[in-house]
């Protein structure tokens, strides 16, 4: 057989287990790894996976020698706030003085500062800025990701953010999932009249559906933001219109958002740092994916991290994401999050790889298209500057990608010898 591309001399090939439901508990601890492998690509899809010893009998137009490197599916980042205006570096000194995240928000900063910047940015400015963040994510190994609105808090700007997502989706050859996060904060004008604001966001759902601008909806259920009752109402209204639902739940104060996510059959419940024992128990009996964001806990300077070990031991499905945003976690680097998962969540390398591939794909409804590598799948893969899968969480804070490929096309490649003037 003759193929378009053949990757030979793969030291380890990560092949996460595909299933119709996310990997839970014990299944998260198993990672399928093929040693000394080769992989052939035809028409952008994985056409053959075999042993490297068979490589001479396989012909291809182009042969890539992985030289013993690790190869994995393209990473999946299931929680980002990709499209937004401005930046908030001035908040760092407030954080250093110990001003809590929710107090910064209460005083008109935080999310509300980014709302101002996003409202005043043009669609093109938002697109250009999001493109550069997106390209950095791809350079770090991501080929599938989710992005939320939520920095408009009004009809015009929420739709503007979602249109930017749509244009990114049409322009870049990657998988992008859009989420409407209209109820991300209460705009000052509606303070004390949260119901009226929520009504306006619910009204917007029909337009978003008609224009096919989002696949999911999301809400920030938190003290001083939206209550459990308000979140339940928004999630019900979203479901009635055919949206899948997500929730920023139990990030700071344990309100019971985890339990609500299970009750509403949310595709994911995100953050969960303060999830209750009951919430974790219910989660483990559901297919709702716990999307954990340890980079955010780190960036907010907190000591208590989400209880990933208890979640996994009790049988929940866990995924990891960057939560890339201009306030609570300012990094596009999902590899760094893999290190935090090892160091702070005490997750094993096997659990971490499942959490950034197949389970992350489940968390955004993309498990049919992403998160694993089987014959017939899109050839979305990363060749890593690493000898084995333990290495990526271990060597932290830098970019280890060698080649990032989407549907068999190289999107990013490390070129040797450029940009160094040391000798
Ligand atoms: N917690 C709520 N929303 C975002 C942060 C948004 C911001 O600070 O701009 C999050 O997921 O961390
Ligand atoms: Zn978020």
From TrEMBL:
Protein known as: Imidazolonepropionase
NCBIfam families assigned: hutI
InterPro entries found in the cross-reference section: Amidohydro-rel (IPR006680), HutI (IPR005920), Metal-dep_hydrolase_composite (IPR011059), Metal_Hydrolase (IPR032466)
Job of this protein: Catalyzes the hydrolytic cleavage of the carbon-nitrogen bond in imidazolone-5-propanoate to yield N-formimidoyl-L-glutamate. It is the third step in the universal histidine degradation pathway.
UniProt-recorded Gene Ontology molecular function terms: imidazolonepropionase activity
Organism whose genome encodes this protein: Pontibacillus salicampi
Amidohydrolase-related domain span: 71-408
Pathway info: Amino-acid degradation; L-histidine degradation into L-glutamate; N-formimidoyl-L-glutamate from L-histidine: step 3/3
Annotated positions binding Zn(2+): 79, 81, 248, 323
Cofactors required: Zn(2+); Fe(3+)
Cited PANTHER family: IMIDAZOLONEPROPIONASE, IMIDAZOLONEPROPIONASE-RELATED
Organism ancestry: Bacteria, Bacillati, Bacillota, Bacilli, Bacillales
